[in-house]
Each structure stands twice: as C-alpha cells, then as structure tokens.
Amino acid sequence: MLSDLILWNKIGRIITRIHEALDISPARAFDLFYSSETCQRLHNPNDYLYLMGDLYIVDELIIELRGK
C-alpha cells in the first residue's frame, strides 16, 4: 500500500534525525524509536502525529525520553 511506503520513508528520515540529534548509532536510534510511545502514536491513524513534520516527531521523542 502506498501509505505504508510513505510511512516507512518517514520513519527512516526520523531515525536518521534521531541518530544525528542524540549522537547515537543508527541501530540505537532505531531501537529507541521503535520502543517508544511516539512510535506507537505515529502508527495510530487516529492520533494524526503522522501529519507532523519529521523534526516535530523527533522533538516529541526527545521530550518522551526526558520524561522517563
């Protein structure tokens, strides 16, 4: 499905930005993102987080991580 492809591309960009922002390995960025509530929200079509920009989503993840 086209929407899945678009979401996968978005997630790839988000993981790259997490890797750069936190100065961690891409694999660690991947693990952090996929184990986060932010990732769950991104996959929830009722949340509308998928409509936000990549940097906004990275900021949401960083805020989530600071709260833990």
Percentage of residues in helical conformation: over 70%
Provide mean pLDDT, rounded: 94
Distance between the termini: 35 Å
Taking all Cα atoms into account, the compactness measure Rg is 11 Å
Strand proportion, as a percent range, falls in: under 5%
Task: State the secondary-structure class.
Answer: mainly alpha
| Biggest β-sheet description | none
Instruction: Give a count of the beta strands, DSSP E runs of length 2 or more.
Output: 0
Listing every helix as H and every strand as E from the N terminus to the C terminus, the arrangement reads HHHH
Uncertain segments are: none
The number of helical runs is 4
Write the layout of secondary structure elements.
Elements: H1 2-22, H2 26-34, H3 37-43, H4 54-67
In short:
With 68 residues, the chain is mostly helical. It has helices spanning 2-22, 26-34, 37-43, 54-67.
Describe this structure in words.
- There is one protein chain.
- The protein is mostly helical and 68 residues long.
- The chain is built from four helices and no strands.
- α1 (2-22) packs across α2, α1 (2-22) packs across α4 (54-67) and α3 (37-43) packs antiparallel against α4.
- The model has no long low-confidence stretch (mean pLDDT 94).
Primary descriptors:
68 residues; mainly alpha; 4 helices; 0% strand
